Hints:
The structure holds 2 protein chains of 2 kinds.
Chain A: H1 15-20, E1 36-42, E2 48-54, H2 56-59, E3 64-69, E4 105-106, E5 112-118, H3 121-128, E6 132-137, H4 144-147, E7 163-170, H5 173-181, E8 185-193, E9 205-211, E10 216-221, H6 226-238, E11 245-248, H7 264-276, E12 280-283, H8 286-292, E13 299-307, E14 313-325, E15 352-361, H9 375-393, H10 397-404, E16 411-412, E17 418-419, H11 424-435, H12 440-449, E18 453-462, H13 470-475, E19 484-490, E20 496-500, H14 509-521, E21 528-531, H15 549-576, E22 583-586, E23 589-592, E24 598-600, H16 601-609, E25 624-629, E26 638-647, E27 654-664, H17 671-691, E28 724-727, H18 747-766, H19 781-788
Chain B: E1 5-7, H1 12-19, E2 24-27, H2 33-38, E3 46-49, E4 59-61, E5 67-70, H3 75-81, H4 86-92, H5 98-103, H6 106-112, H7 119-126, E6 129-132, E7 136-138, H8 139-142, E8 157-162, E9 167-174, E10 181-190, E11 193-199, E12 207-208, H9 210-218, H10 242-259
Parallel strand pairs in B: 1-3, 2-3
Antiparallel strand pairs in B: 4-5, 5-8, 6-7, 6-8, 9-10, 10-11, 11-12
Helix pairs in contact in B: 3-4
Amino acid sequence: MPKDHGIGASPKRREDVRFLTGAGNYTDDINVHGQAYVHFLRSDMAHGTINKIDTSAAEGMPGVVRIFTGADFEGVGGLPCGWEITDKNGDAMKEPGHPVLCQGKVRHVGDPIAAVVADSLEEARTAAEAIELDITELPAVVDMGKALEAGSTKVHDDLADNLCYDWQFGSDTETTDAAFKSAAHVTTLELVNNRLVANPMEPRVAVGDYSRANDEHTLYTTSQNPHVIRLLMGAFVLGIPEHKLRVVAPDVGGGFGTKIFHYAEEAFCTFAAKACNRPVKWTSTRSEAFMSDAHGRDHVTTIELALDKDNNFLAVRTDTKANMGAYLSTFASSVPTWLHGTLMAGNYKTPAVQVNVKAVFTNTVPVDAYRGAGRPEATFQLERVIDKAARELGVDPIALRRQNFITQFPYATPVAVEYDTGDYEATMAKMEELMDIGGFAARRKASEAKGMLRGLGVNCFIEACGIAPSNLVGQLGARAGLYDAATVRVNATGSISVMVGAHSHGQGHETVFPQVVAEMLGIDEGMIDIVHGDTSKIPFGMGTYGSRSLAVCGSAMVRATEKIINKAKKIAGHLLEASDSDIELKDGQFTVAGTDKSVAWGDVTLAAYVPHNYPLEDIEPGLEETAFYDPANFTYPAGAYACEVEVDPETGKVTIEKFVSADDFGNVVNPMIVEGQVHGGIAQGIGQALLENCAYDENGQLLSASYMDYAMPRADDIPHMASYVVDHSCQTPCTHNPLGVKGCGEAGAIGSPPTVVNAVIDALHSGGHTHVSHIDMPVSPSRVWAAMNGQ
Amino acid sequence: MYSFDIQRPTSVGDAVAALGTDEALPLGGGQTLIPTLKQRLSAPSVLVSLSGIAEMKGVCTGDDGALCIGGGTTHATVAKEASVYPGLAALAGNIGDPAVRNRGTIGGSLANNDPSACYPAAALGSGATIVTNTRSIAADDYFQGMFATALNEGEIITEVRFPVPEKSAYMKFEQPASRFALVGVFVAKYADGVRVAVTGASEEGVFRWTEAEAALSSNFSADAVPAAPSGDGMISDLHGSGAYRAHLVAVMTKRAVAAAS
């Protein structure tokens, strides 16, 4: 019988009531009295030298409050990068300046050149058209290979070249080379992890407000981590101390990573609100989002897999070029390195793993974390090369994986991380069962009878979530701690507000977090509310990304609740005239063990705030506790995925007929929400695999700059729910956090792209197209047709 | 968008008069024009809405048996009411999404002549007559390349007359992002021969695939469809090469013939 409350129950998402009835409070819903509007004049060329910006005509246009250019931001800090990478020679990464508004050069289409603040948005736009730009266009560098060639055009004139860093990690070259030399078989694969645009449903918005009365700034912004924005913008860009800067991220309509970062528009609106002495609002258009939101992925990789004569994996070696775009976005440098290299062992006991990454500047929009961030790139390479190896060796791809699984835990990989727990055989077996692998041959025959090619793709993945132990990431170059924090405020009548550092922008924290606290206290979930997204209300936590909220912030909340319980037992002991060590808490009642003497939750909380009969000599009144939680390790969710596709051999169109995921997320608090996360993640991964493609031409013009050309997955691109099976019944609880949870937000997006591509290749081989060993994503109809026809 | 005045005439005559002023643009369902205005790519001083003109709306059968559709008739209405011409009704019912079909009009689509739109294939593939406030234009003379038509400035499509074929079908292979036709083929079999019109594929806009028409006129079966036309002059972009589009022309023609009813 499934539980109907607390941990393991699936109450409906309480936040959906306001979202679905139009009562949400998104940043664009916030309008501050007297606000002006800003329109950014953005570069329409990818690279150029700014000779002159003449704003004189525009300044006299109706409604104009003030026009800003890069000159107004001289002496103001640039946008910082939050992670320093040390390259293989021991040198620090190249870290070019990233001004709020362009200074001297434009470096990508969309780079903000000037900002017009006016009484209305239309007046701002009209005035922006009257700004005269004198910009000398320069050759653009878009292709990473060309960017690294000697004599290439440089994105940043003050750097020696376009190389941000050349990073090497894992097994040393001697060990790796020896393993390859001894191999009976080596499989090599070159592939592209396609550039993506995150496209959250809500575009970015920023509203800056300034109070002359007390010199206080407020920024309302679409952020996944308001405290991080306050720290970065306050300390590194604008020089505003924390107590004079409040950052509010109210309801946020999806993030997917792209709302982690500190953006120029946030700094601009905060700065301009003071400079203009008026609130300043910016709402991104969808077109602006395509050229100003940080993009994702964009890796080009050669991966080699060495196997011995018995098909045991001996070594993996990768050589990746990772696109940084024109500037280093907030966490861009960490994605192809620590979030990618550390996962290259996958689920396998490969003795030698070496990862090489060159990060490259180009005249494109900055690239940063996107759902999965580095881990999908690692999984895609590894699982594609394993599939290719299985085909070359003529062995079953499931058997080849199984044979090489890690089976003993904890397991220290050659790429620095230690998996605390897992059971890859269990998820594989569950996947096989749910997919009915045994029935595939018959289903293939049925497809062939319709003239379609049917393929089966399988895939395993491991991810590192719950980022992260602060001392470890500090050694790796992170410029922040990655703990989180929660304050549990019990009110006099027993209701509770929990102030959390995590930020919910679709995850459902407002539903899930109370389930945990309610379970611990034995009270009704409806008595508990979550408060998040406002630095003036919540403790200093690091926000939500990397599937960390429950594993890290949830753990802080558990620790704070434990403190509450301890104090409440002391109060109850006083009220019951018993030792607090004899007090038991169950179902919201404090009972003296072995007796029927008890006192209710509400009596204890009332005593804490009306301390007429209270042990004031021993404890303070009130019932409010804060805990900061710094994880001991990452968490390691893992799983086995499979899908079946039909390929239309005449058109190349791929249809996903069935998708199965068998995940191990450790313990699960709300199964419905976990399943929703995985459904969404897989849909996003199917989008990457079949549809999404952020493409530039050789001049740095964005070819896929709207939904007319950028294909988002839609409901009819994913299988019908009956054939879209997500399972999380295999559970090896995390060994080092109090809830035993691992995180589920990114799994679907990590596990699904190679699953789909593996299935398509399988289908083509069944149709006799055995020359096709790989198709780069998106595996669009035209690419499939071209591959089948050798074009 | 820039500011503009809007006029809502209730007769074709008033609309024509309103369009006589400088920088006035006709507004059909607005499915192309409104996004263009929002992006400030067009700056009319006056928009003349055609949606209030009752005489331009509706579906009926003419004395000659042709299906007559008012220029201001929405795709949704055609999908529902053009049952005498099932191939056309099905095409209209699969344009865009419900929001597009409830606003977009046949006159607006044909006047815009987007190279990937569906209606031009139906009009050319049916040998339709485009009726305006001043004249009647044969479809063969009407389409003059991407976004180019025989319409003069200020001329309004008031009606489109479709001869009803014995059999017809439209097969659209969708561009994955926009879901416009990457290649769409309309096949119509008349007593005096078969017409095959292709949208989405050519840099010259909608065209008749005459080789296929000839072959199908003597043998109306999928097997009779000739080998794919040359990819020269076909659109080549992010979503497919010219060669791919040319290949799809043959595939979609075969499927249209097989589906024709």
